[in-house]
Amino acid sequence: MPKSVRRVALLSLILLALVALPGPMEAQQPRLGITISAWFIPAANDLFKQMVAEWAKQKNVTVDVELVSEGDLTPKFTTAAETGAGPDIIQVASLGPHLFPDKLVDVSDLVPALESKYGPIAQIAKDAVVVRGKWRAMPFYATPQVLTYREDILKEIGEPVPDTWEDALRVGKKLKAKGVAWGEALGHCPVDCITTVYSILWAHGAKEVEKDGRTIALNSPETAKALDFIKRAAAEAWPAGVVGWDNSSNNRAFLGGQLGMTVNAATIWFASKKQAPAISASINHAPIPRGPAARAIPFWPTSLAVFAHSKQQALAKDLVRHLTDGPQMARWLDSTEGAGAGLLAGLGKLEKARDPKLAVVLKAIEWGRLPGWPGPPTRESAEVHAKYVLVDMAQNVVKGTPIPQAIEQTVTEMKRIYGQR
Amino acid sequence: MNGGTGRLLARDAVVGYLWVTPALLLLGSLVAYPFLLALYWSLTTKTAGIPGVFVGLDNYVYLLGSPTFRQTLANTFVFTASSVAAKLVLGMAAALVLDQTFRGRNLARGVFLLPWIVPTSLSALAWLWIYDDFFGVISRVAIDVGLRREPIPFLSDSILAMFAVVLVNVWRGVSFFTVSFLAGMQAVGQELYEAAETDGAGAARRFWHVTLPGLRPILAVATLFSVVWTFSDFTIVYIITRGGPANSTHLLATLAYQTAIFGGKVGEGLAISSFMFPLLVLVIFLQLHFLRRAQS
Lengths: 421, 296
Fold this sequence. Notes:
Chain A is of the alpha/beta class. Chain A has helices spanning 3-20, 42-59, 73-83, 96-99, 111-118, 123-129, 151-156, 165-178, 192-203, 221-236, 249-255, 267-275, 277-280, 313-324, 326-335, 347-350, 359-367, 379-386, 389-398, 403-417; strands at 31-37, 62-68, 89-93, 130-131, 134-135, 138-139, 141-142, 146-150, 181-182, 259-264, 283-286, 297-298, 302-306, 341-342, 368-369.
């Protein structure tokens, strides 16, 4: 081997060793990381960063804010919980705290002060985060979904805003004939597609499990009725491709003038102000339709959790306290221009007046349910939800599987998930 | 440099080991360790953040009884077989064209590589738009020229959805075959073609008796590489269909991800991805076999 090569070898080894050695210890500010889902209104993201920065300055702490897409939140959460590394604080979607309660710091002591000042935290938000009597995360906010419709088109076809799913179907048929259809997502998508199936099932009185959260109760005449409704809606009113739709399909179609009615968060309306000013003024919102049994909708409360692996737990908890405190929450909700909903009863008084078109957003919490209803949230119901088990049932029916057979297949799959193999 | 180190480094063997150590450490810590851990976890009830208990082959038995899994396994074979076959044929055709002398040949060769260079996630997003019901260019044009009254259900019809994801994989992967074949064609001796021509062989017979035998080693290796990549594909399906409609496009990789990351069942998810292992081992064995034959 030539001498020069040997020298290079030795030098690279020395360099490697130097890089690997720890540098001199510096007196550094404590550092925290927080990961949250990016909001679709940029001003709300800026305000969030500002709120964190204000707190950080007060406490002389450095905080890294990471904004990720809504769909990346769960992978981030799972990975951090599994590896014990990653951010100190994370925004958790829906039933997340039930998946790994032991990986999250107990934040129960933050609750009394908050509730005494601003009234009780909504029960549904509490159910999502309290595991075996301990608060594993602090309720943050929700982005409720409502029936988004075009007033001008409904007027043209001479129909009022539908109150029941059957009304919606009647209106939907007319809308289809007019070329500005009613459409609901029915693909493998984490929010809209779940809403379509769960809302219609619940509205007809169907349920996955009994109150005990263990006894599978899907095989019922109510489930069959709900599936029959989905089948009729897909055949008679919805656009042909709904089983391929994702979260953004109905947004795009609505903004492009192809849809006149769909269940969605207020995202369509916000986007319309810039992207479709011609229809913006005629867009309005109403409660999700009801069925013979109920008006119901999956509600997605999000929460802020502190990881047990955090080396700055006290500071992290204080940042969570600061961000979920009334004045901060109200300030941030204002920046969402009414599309976000707080989970504290008394927040309404602190917020600025909402746009009347969005008043219904706040009411959605009354009809909100968590996956696994009427049972308590469980790891199994979260799995049924995450694996699109009920969505697949509806898709199969739309694609021609007889309803009893589709239900039976789904019950088999559920039995496997619930450990009744 | 002092005398001692110098003497030590003078022995080539020691230096050789020193050079190899980082690579071995990297392979060991980044490939072997995670792989063995994954295999072990696939034998447990591990969920994210919780160790789980050892259950032997329970996860595997459970999966083989699951209709969703069996469908996914079948999907993966259909996806791989049809994608690789299409890439092979189209790649060969493109290579034959690009092997001819014509103006702008180098530019054409460069352009042909583009789909392979674009990050998969970006091209998958672009295709998602192409397939869109309302604004996708194919459906739009079909409706505008009066061929169809409704959009083509690329993502909502089970068969079309599989076709849609295969098409994207083919579009992306064809250039790998083309480039490999082109390189192989340069190596086939011109004198063989001339001799064949003198003997009166037409273009088809020259291809069949000269080009194809000359390309055989490269053909085998490129196909096997492609089988490995296609079999373990994830991005295209994850972005375009998420396994839908009704699980008709789920691949082992996407089902494993959905089960382990979203469903939280790490053990089961790893068992799903472990099903890829025996097949890929077979493919790699064949690959090495052909490589060795090509070398000798």
